[in-house]
Write a structure and sequence with these properties.
Blueprint (H helix, E strand, L loop, with lengths): L1 E12 L4 E3 L2 E3 L4 E2 L7 H13 L5 H4 L12 H14 L2 E11 L9 H11 L7 E6 L5 H4 L3 E12 L2
Parallel strand pairs: 5-6
Antiparallel strand pairs: 1-4, 1-7, 2-3, 5-7
Helix pairs in contact: 1-3
The structure holds the ligand Nc1ccn([C@@H]2O[C@H](COP(=O)(O)O)[C@@H](O)[C@H]2O)c(=O)n1 and 2C-methyl-D-erythritol 2,4-cyclodiphosphate.
The site of the ligand Nc1ccn([C@@H]2O[C@H](COP(=O)(O)O)[C@@H](O)[C@H]2O)c(=O)n1 has 7 residues, from strand 6.
């Protein structure tokens, strides 16, 4: 078994869609990035790469490469899944947390879990996604950005 962690932050700006966990969320602002800026999927990808000791998403998918401009992060997660399988691993379980003052994510969590478990070809019970505010403290509390953290355990494929 191998364990990995991932962390990501993206800035909230006007004129962008808010996409988190592969789901488009109704909000007056969205996250800024070279890709679709899906902060949760980025943290999850980095946790898997960390468990495999293969670096991070910036190394695999440079933000200077036009191929990744506005790319749907679900596509990138699919590439990470293929790398994990090539390395001989599968998801044991994954836990994650999104930190955002607004909007409320509660109503979107089940859809996110279904999308992510489908891409990672694992039972939805193996994927945990939670949300928290930071009680109005810091950059998250000021609604300047959203952060996400993920921890994963990978198992050798049987
Ligand atoms: N963006 C968010 C933040 C929180 N939630 C849900 O609300 C609960 C209470 O949050 P606190 O930060 O006040 O502890 C939290 O446990 C989440 O269920 C949310 O959906 N979206
Ligand atoms: C996902 C990538 C793809 O170019 O771009 P960004 O959306 O800027 O996201 P970041 O979390 O900064 O990771 C870097 C890149 O891998």
């Amino acid at each position: 078994m191998r364990i990995g962690i991932g962390y990501d932050v993206h800035k909230l700006v006007e004129g962008r869609k808010l996409i988190v966990g592969g789901v488009e969320i109704k909000h007056e602002k969205g996250l800024l990035g070279h890709s679709d800026a899906d902060v949760l999927i980025h943290a999850i990808m980095d946790s898997i790469l960390g468990a495999l000791n293969l670096g991070d998403i910036g190394k695999l998918f440079p933000d200077t490469d036009e191929a990744y401009k506005d790319i749907d992060s679900k596509i990138l997660l699919g590439k990470i899944y293929e790398i994990m399988v090539d390395e001989g691993y599968e998801i044991g379980n994954l836990d994650s947390v999104i930190a955002a003052e607004r909007p409320k994510f509660k109503g979107y969590i089940e859809s996110m879990k279904n999308i992510i478990s489908d891409i990672l070809v694992t039972d939805v019970e193996n994927i945990s996604i939670k949300a928290t505010t930071t009680e109005k403290l810091g950059f998250v509390g000021r609604e300047e950005g959203i952060s996400a953290e993920a921890v994963v355990i990978l198992k050798k494929r049987g």
